Amino acid sequence: MARFFTLASGSSGNSAYVGSSEAGILVDAGISCRSILAGLDAQRVPLEHIQAIFITHEHIDHIRGLKVLMKRLQVPLFASEPVLEFLTANDAVPAGTRLESINGESVPVAGMRVSSFRTSHDSIHSLGFRIETADDRRIGICTDLGFVSDEVRRNLSGCDLVLLESNYEPAMLMNGRYPYYLKKRIAGQKGHLSNEDCAAFLPELVRNGTSRIVLAHLSKENNHPDLAYQTAFSGLCNSRMAMGEDYILSVAKRSEPGECLIF
């Protein structure tokens, strides 16, 4: 059976586990190595079960603990070629790390197959991931995107579980303390996904087979878990979809492991 949980999710740091009871992968390492190890231990996942790390992009909230963690794990590191070049040039990975470029193709790891897709974000190169387990479960991970592109739609369609960004509440962002240029960046086509844009996409996901939705990467300054949840819930209710029957909805925790979803 597939297992999924977040170790942390938000503008302060991101990391998630996908796998089984025998082996798995980490997607991003944006919190300290100590926090990642503590989170895995809390979920009773031995360190040796981690077979690879996949990085969505090079921003610090996705790679903060990467170098120290790679020293401990000594497993392959997958990312796009531009991101691998950045990590190497900026001393963000230990010497001798096995670097594997991923660019849309499906790669086998930990008894699963992982493929990547582009997301629109102001980074060197930003990816989402679609993971297919040995028992035909499909997990989509998609954070850091300014809008839902056709490529995102194709790759998340049919996923049993989707971790999707619900980063900011527009009114909180516009009335908040951020300078105008940063507000414009966040709300732009290469920024982040708002609660409303996330909610508008969810009915399509459910119609195409998604039964578990985890809202992720919430802004500490410009959002609140209750706001993100209620906006998503309302969007699904307006499409006549019932919580507990058509889908299960949750919000990833900011700085501690979330519930382990087994399906």
UniProtKB/TrEMBL annotation:
It comes from the Bacteria. Pfam families: Lactamase_B_2. Residues 12-192 form the Metallo-beta-lactamase domain. InterPro entries: Metallo-B-lactamas, RibonucZ/Hydroxyglut_hydro, WalJ/YycJ-like. This is MBL fold metallo-hydrolase. It comes from Ligaoa zhengdingensis.
